[in-house]
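Sample entry was shown:

___
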Amino acid sequence: MSMYNPPHPGEFIKEVYLDPSGLSYRSVALKLKVSPSTFLRLIKGQSNVSPEMALRLSKGLGRSPESWLALQDNFNLWHARQTVDLDDIEPIAMPV
């Protein structure tokens, strides 16, 4: 079952990791060995979690890299479902 309007991974990071712990995005970025501007774009939902970032987040914050990518995929897929019109797409019969 798909989640209703899942959060962007950056929003998740902010709400679950940064806000409760009082960590700044800048300090986390430095620990992840990425530029603060790169991490800020992620936190603001202006960029996506790449496989490389998923590895960094996994090592730095925990969770598996796959779970970070799944958060991004769920967010992207939910938003695509809101905008992509599939009414004229017909199933393709594959030969057996």
In short: The chain has one domain: 9-78. Helices lie at 9-21, 25-32, 36-43, 51-61, 65-83.
